[in-house]
Every structure is written in structure tokens, then in C-alpha cells.
Amino acid sequence: MHPDANTRRLLYKIAHVYYEEGLSQKQIGLRYGLSRIKVSRMLKQARDLKIVQITFSAGNERTASLEHSIEAAYGLDEAVVVSSVPSADGKTNLNALGAAAAECLVRGIQGDETIAITWGHSILAVVDALPTGNWPDLHIVQTLGGLSQPESKINAGDLARRTAQTLGANVTLLSSPGLVESKSVRDSLMNDPQIKRTLGLAAKANIALVGIGVPNSTSFSLVEVLKEKDIERLTSRGIVGDIGLQFFNEKGMQVPDEIHDCVVGLNLAQYKAIPRVIAVAAGVEKVRAIRSALKGKIINVLVTDEITAGELLRKQ
What we know:
Residues 61-313 form the Sugar-binding domain. This protein has helices at 5-19, 25-32, 36-48, 61-74, 91-106, 121-129, 156-167, 183-190, 193-203, 228-236, 268-273, 287-295, 306-314; strands spanning 78-82, 114-117, 139-142, 170-172, 207-211, 239-243, 246-249, 276-280, 301-305.
């Protein structure tokens, strides 16, 4: 039985870093979120499928080359690049990104991790693509309070709940709005024992699944929660992107802004401290934000498409 494209991509990557870069099986396991035994089995599978020969065959040499180049250019643990398929509404690419990110997430699960979940359309695509699992010791936790309407499919609470249901895992939800009117309200909520416990659990997660937003009027997610004056102010301060409403500049550093005093969720330093942060983001309008997140070492795994990958390499 031939492996699917995602499995073949991973087999190629593991073989490449083992035979070409000289990484140990333990190092590979840490890099890709796999056990040492699984790495050993996949190396054997790569040999059996003749992926390991005198030359390497990734199945899609173009995207494999982009992945390797981005990993080298930005010091990433892993880049996953999907083929760009033109579509009028962009859903084809988003579905492909979601499927690739779902595979990237699930293959790293041993069964007792804590996975932190943010919000947005990219994360929705991942959740939609998750396979059914049975990990009763796995824990899914919400990193940010609710931002859109409770019935919205991109709401962080709904995404965390659906992820847990699909994977057969436990879930801890953050019973709070994600953005409040003032610092005093936010401080009061952050001192609530249940909220404090939830965010403490999220900060200690093994894996985080995040999207990358852009503070402008074309961002479907952000325009639901930010006022026009907020977007204008953020832009004027040199802010180029956000993860979980934590806004950062060109260098990937958090910029002081009043909006951070109103967000109930993890801060940027806490995201950066999570061992494996998988970002799902693509589109020429997001290149600047993605590049900045990479430069700031906020993320260490990127799932994107080949057009975005090409732009990231051209505009380092």
C-alpha cells in the first residue's frame, strides 16, 4: 500500500535529515514530534519505498525544495509546503493547508500531551481535517477567550471543543470573552481562579496550533473583533501581525499597545515558550507577518503554500 502525500513528505524529510544532515534518531524525534521507535520504523519504510536511494525522491521535488530552503533560511524545526491551487474563493488552498497541518499535528501526538488551540479560519480548516482518534489522556486547552459570536465556527471555544471530540481527548475551555473594554475588567478576569488555571495549563502546553493575523481591513477574522480606529493605531505603530491578539512588529517583537491590556489570553512570551508551535498561514498579504513571526522565533513549525514560501525566500 502506497503512503499518501503527507506521509511520503514526512518520510522524505526524516530520511533527508538522517542521511544528509547527520541528525540522530533522537534529534529527529524531538524535531518532528515523534518517538525514537517511530523514527526508526519510518526510516525503514523510506528504504523499503526506495525514497532512500543514491538521490532523494520526495514525490513533489518543488515543494520539498522549498521546505528545506525555508527551514535552513529561518532556522525552523519544520516547514510544510502544499501546492498552490488557484481558486476564486481561496477555499481549495485553505482546505489543503488544513489537511497538511492536521497531519503534522496528529503524527506528533504520543497520547499524554497538552495541545493549545487559538482561533480563526486557518485553525477551523485544521479542525475540519482532523482524523478521528482515541486519546483519553490527551488534553486540549483554549488559549484565548471567545472573540466572535458563540455560534461562530471560528470561535476558540468551539474549535477547542471540536478538536477534543474528534481526537477523543479531554478539553479545558476558557470561560471568558477574549477582548474586554478595559484593563480593570481584564485584570479582574485574569485573577479568576478558573481562568487563571486554564491559562496556566495553556502556558505549559507541549504543542500550540496557531494562525497568524494581519491588522488590516482584509482580515476576515480581525475585522469581526477590532474597531477601525484600533487597526489604524496598530498599523501606525509598526505592527505587522498577531498571534492570538498578541501583536508584533517587523522584528517579531511585541509592541506595547493598549489593546494588550484588554486581551484575556496567553501573551507572546508564553506562546514562544511552548516547545512546538505550529503556525498555519498563507497568502501574499500575510508574507510580512509570517516572516516577522519567523524572525522573532515565535513559531518553529510553519504550514503554508508554495507561493507564500517563494515570497518568504525572496524577501528574507
